[in-house]
């Protein structure tokens, strides 16, 4: 009895073998998690917020773990197929003449290669950056994150993230971030700044980047910082009223 034989090049099942792609599905779940997070911060009672945010963090960790498992399995199958095909090409094809040979010494099988472990490095999307930052900015909405120190892309004062728009000099309501230089301003301030101007220098001092309104998009991370900061301020005010 033959255990395994070299791959037949016309084997449709082999060529169609692949792992289902769930990256888009997981990415959509991350976006939904962020939307739920914003709703939680806005509507939840302050006494329940700590527990709810921990639940969000745990859900994200589970998503990330599932994503890593999926990517690893995809790579394992892809690399196993490639190695199995290459190995099969070096072996004599199954025939009457080679039948007894493969009965005595089976050819390597696909599962032999699929058992190999592979290292994976997951890409970081904007949703990942927000959800990874959550445990830190929940404790301190103005804290510096590891990535924040790598570039001058935020308003930083005394080692803290400034939650005040440099144009309006008021707390952010609708923070917008430049895709070119990374500086953040409130949408109302930007509309006034660019009124009657198709393009202007970045409003941030010492930044000479030429910008247009089209270069800005919503800064979801800054928006979340501001929501958490406002929630903490209101909780402190409530505690003082009780005293």
UniProtKB/TrEMBL annotation:
Keywords: Coiled coil, Metal-binding, Nucleus, Transferase, Ubl conjugation pathway, Zinc, Zinc-finger. Its main location: nucleus. SUPFAM superfamilies: RING/U-box. It is found in: Nucleus. GO terms for cellular component: nucleus; Smc5-Smc6 complex. Residues 63-90 form a coiled coil. It comes from Zygosaccharomyces mellis. PANTHER family: E3 SUMO-PROTEIN LIGASE NSE2. The lineage of its organism: Eukaryota, Fungi, Dikarya, Ascomycota, Saccharomycotina. This is SP-RING-type domain-containing protein.
């Amino acid at each position: 009895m033959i255990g395994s034989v070299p791959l037949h090049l016309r084997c449709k099942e082999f060529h169609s073998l692949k792992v289902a792609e769930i990256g888009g599905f997981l990415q959509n779940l991350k976006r939904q998690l962020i939307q739920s997070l914003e709703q939680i911060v806005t509507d939840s009672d302050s006494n329940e917020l700590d527990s709810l945010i921990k639940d969000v963090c745990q859900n994200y960790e589970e998503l990330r773990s599932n994503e890593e498992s999926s990517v690893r399995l995809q790579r394992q199958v892809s690399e196993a197929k490639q190695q199995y095909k290459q190995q099969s090409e070096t072996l004599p094809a199954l025939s009457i003449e080679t039948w007894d040979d493969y009965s005595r010494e089976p050819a390597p099988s696909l599962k032999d290669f699929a058992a190999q472990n592979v290292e994976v490095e997951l890409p970081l999307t904007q949703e990942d950056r927000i959800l990874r930052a959550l445990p830190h900015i929940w404790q301190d909405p103005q804290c510096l994150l590891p990535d924040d120190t790598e570039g001058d892309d935020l308003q930083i004062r005394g080692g803290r993230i400034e939650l005040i728009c440099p144009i309006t000099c008021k707390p952010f309501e609708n923070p917008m971030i430049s895709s070119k230089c990374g500086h953040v301003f409130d949408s109302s301030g930007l509309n006034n700044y660019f009124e009657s101007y198709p393009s202007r220098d970045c409003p941030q001092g010492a930044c000479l980047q030429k910008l247009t309104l089209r270069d800005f998009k919503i800064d979801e991370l800054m928006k979340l910082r501001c929501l958490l900061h406002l929630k903490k301020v209101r909780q402190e005010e409530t505690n003082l009223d009780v005293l």
